[in-house]
Amino acid sequence: MQQTDLVTVASADGKPFVAGSGKPSSESPMHARVYQRFPEIKIVAHTHQVYASALTLLGTDIDVPEQWQSVLGTAKIPLSAYALPGTKKLHNNMGETLARSDAKTVLMGRHGAFILAETAAECLRLAEDLERFCAGLYTERLGRQSMQRPEIMSDSDKEKSVAGALQKTTQEGVAVSADSEVQPWLSRTLKPYLDDFAQICGTSVSQKRGTANVVFDPAAQVAICFGKDEADAKNVRAVLEKNARAANIAQISSLSPIPAWEALLMRLVYQLKYSRQANR
Predict the structure, then answer these.
(1) CA quadruple 108, 175, 260, 208: dihedral, nearest 10
(2) Fold of 3-142
(3) pLDDT tens-digit profile of 16-42?
């Protein structure tokens, strides 16, 4: 993203102040809803953090234990219902959620989180505390400790070794995941439980690559991710590992994956529009 890509929009409707100054995000109407509902709010961050995204697959508002209520500023984290990205239904769902809750952290079904704050520092603090809370709840619900990758670009020794060998066989960028939360899926088909998995990884991932950007290798106990370069492949890996956590939660809540036609539509839109913008 460049400085010239930034667009100043009106909080009343999310439309640009200056005609022809650029096209705002398709999700700007949701931000406008926040400013209309809470005039004191000055910062709205839309995040795709790992555990907060995964916990949206519980499919319900989340009760906040007493010891976390003063930290997160609420006794209940509301869930805004899922809809296709950029649609009026998605915006209306957020408007309905904001109307029924004063919480400053909102989960977006199969998508991510909305953080509302009066300052940038408060926004960052809330996002970090929300992730700590959701990581703990993930561990509690699954009954096992989950280890998250320290940084998107970091690799274990095994991942470096396998990726190095594979990189010699392809012109694509390669990243390898030996993540513990992906492991249960290596002999199965992993479908999209989060919308960005459909967009970035594919409509399904299995031991046959097909058109996906990921393939499973259960013999080596790894998932192999591909991209236009190594950094891109590691971003694919990050989305894979996040979706695996969402899928693990969905096994508890009995929620189904995103419908196949919606996953395919999101994949096509991403390939035709957003990935081209990234390659400019």
Answers:
(1) -160
(2) L-fuculose-1-phosphate Aldolase (3.40.225)
(3) 666 655 676 778 888 889 999 999 999
